[in-house]
Write a structure and sequence with these properties.
heterodimer, A: alpha+beta, 4 strands, B: mainly alpha, two-stranded antiparallel ribbon
Chain lengths: ~140, ~120
Amino acid sequence: MDFLASFKICSSGLSAQRAKMDVITSNLANMETTKTREGGPYRRKKVVFAAAPLQGGFGGLLDKALSQVKVEKVVAEEGVRLIFDPQHPDADERGMVAKPDVNLMEEMVEMLAASRNFEACVTAFDATKSMALKAMDIGK
Amino acid sequence: MEGLFGKTFRLLSSLLDFYDARHQVILSNIVNIDTPRYRPKEVVFEKELAKITEAKGITLQRTNERHLSVGEEKGGNMRIIEGADHVDIDKEMVSLAENNLRYNLTVELLARKFRSLNNLLKESR
């Protein structure tokens, strides 16, 4: 059994979900950030995953079907939330402050989903491990 | 050697290969749950079994003419089909658990086969 390929697929899933979690926490932490190095308020980031073919296969039928996952890109959304707050140092001449368009509920839901997907990958990893250990029982 | 490590061994080890392939396909479905436009894949079993049983000449006795026979279908290769347009995580986790149990069962059968050979050799000394 090619356990290495299985482990590679599992670990790609784990790191992808972890990257997604990083981006979500960055969105949550910067919910009120009005200044960034690029100028303007913080832009909400979104992770886009892509299926990547498994490297180093033997070119068989299975190689076409197997794919690990990778983070293709992190896109920054354009939208901002304008809030009337004339006292704010970053307010424009109309007294409007541009704040990041981060929806707390949306981020929490995404976070839960990422967490559950991570757990699914862990379960899959456990199953792979138990199969590898079981295969060693053959000669016993 | 053929008598000692015969059809059962070969059938069981090809089954292990098959479950391994299926496991890997399920894994790639699970990790790609969030990938846009990813279509889940599935390894089809019947044809592969048909091929194995046909090649090894394993047949089942039919006691009733309405029974299905094993290995009658001229099977092609192990086939991978594409499923629905999104990954159903419940389905995948169930297949993962099921496949895991089947793999363990096959390993157990193989191990018992070896153990019985071992017993035979030990007792006949």
